[in-house]
Design brief:
globular; Ribosomal Protein S5, domain 2; four-stranded mixed β-sheet; alpha+beta; 10 helices; 11 strands; about 300 residues; about 20% strand
Length: about 300
């Protein structure tokens, strides 16, 4: 099981048909413009892999209007893939079942990364809310947890540390150790799974202290998965936040940098943020903890944009 929430720090893109040559996808983001070609770029560019899969003839411009910091550990690449796929489907006047779309995006992202990847980040981008993703034989099941989003947002503090991470490389180190039969890694993964189940139960019962205990247990287990997960700076940031009053904290995603999620009593929020920022790198900042009730949404103008 994975427990996660959909933050409002959304990926927003504009997709315009007929704005690039056939067989080409033009990519625009602040400070960057380049063209993706088929099939040259489909094996190493997420834009090309997703765009050409859903719109084989290309001929579109993808403009990134907003996104979380790159390497933030907040599922930004998966959210981008969801946004791009939904926009392409809209332009192609097609629909795709959620399970099929997620499986397709997972496999396209694996081609680009060259290592196995999961599906947990696609669900909040598609569905929004506070979710428990259950991994069952033959399928995943997304459960929307009956907890007030405002209650969670008041106690969740997310800080981008200013240091990007590379989740694919970190996760592959963990996968490889597990496949090689490393008993310590296997035991730590079992503890991560146990902490997720405890976190779900605590959220459903709105037990602030128990949520903190589950987050602390998860981080203590996760940091044992690989040496690169818990850096000295991450340890310093988390320790400072806990000393300032946080119940617990953990690195978001694979760790090794990126963002830290603190679980805090609402009255100690400003103290925790100030203490954590003092240990972070230049460019560190708070990420809004407001939660999105809904996932990916589409807007079409004159049939040309999605």
């Amino acid at each position: 099981m994975t427990v996660n929430v959909a933050l409002r720090c959304a990926v927003r893109i504009r997709l315009q048909r007929g704005s690039a040559a056939r067989g080409t996808i033009r990519y625009r983001a602040p400070g960057r413009t380049h063209e993706e070609l088929w099939p040259r770029d489909a094996g190493h560019s997420l834009t090309a892999a997703v765009g050409f899969h859903f719109l084989p003839s290309g001929g579109v411009t993808v403009e990134v209007l907003a996104q979380p910091p790159l390497g933030s550990g907040l599922g930004g690449s998966s959210a981008y893939a969801v946004a791009l796929a939904q926009a392409c489907l809209r332009l192609a006047e097609r629909r795709m079942a959620t399970a099929t779309l997620i499986a397709t995006l997972r496999d396209l992202e694996v081609r680009v990364l060259g290592v196995p990847t999961g599906v947990q980040d696609y669900y909040p981008a598609l569905l929004g809310g506070v979710l428990a993703i259950h991994f069952e034989p033959g399928r995943e099941r997304a459960e929307r947890l009956p907890v007030a989003r405002e209650w969670v947002a008041e106690r969740l503090l997310v800080l981008f540390t200013g240091v990007a991470h590379a989740s694919g490389a970190i996760n592959w180190e963990v996968y490889r150790a597990r496949l090689d039969g490393d008993r310590r890694v296997s035991a730590a993964l079992a503890e991560v799974a146990s902490a997720a189940r405890a976190c779900r139960a605590a959220l459903v019962s709105a037990d602030e202290k128990a949520v903190g205990e589950a987050i602390a247990a998860e981080w203590q287990a996760r940091r044992r998965l690989a040496p690169v997960v818990a850096t000295p700076q991450l340890d310093a940031i988390i320790a400072a936040g806990v000393r300032a009053g946080a119940h617990a904290a953990k690195a978001c995603g694979a760790g090794g940098g990126g963002s830290v999620a603190f679980w805090v009593p609402p009255a100690r929020r400003s103290d925790v943020l100030r203490a954590a920022l003092a240990q972070a790198s230049e460019g560190a900042h708070e990420i809004s903890s407001d939660l999105a009730a809904r996932g990916a949404r589409q807007r079409t103008a004159a049939g040309s944009r999605a």
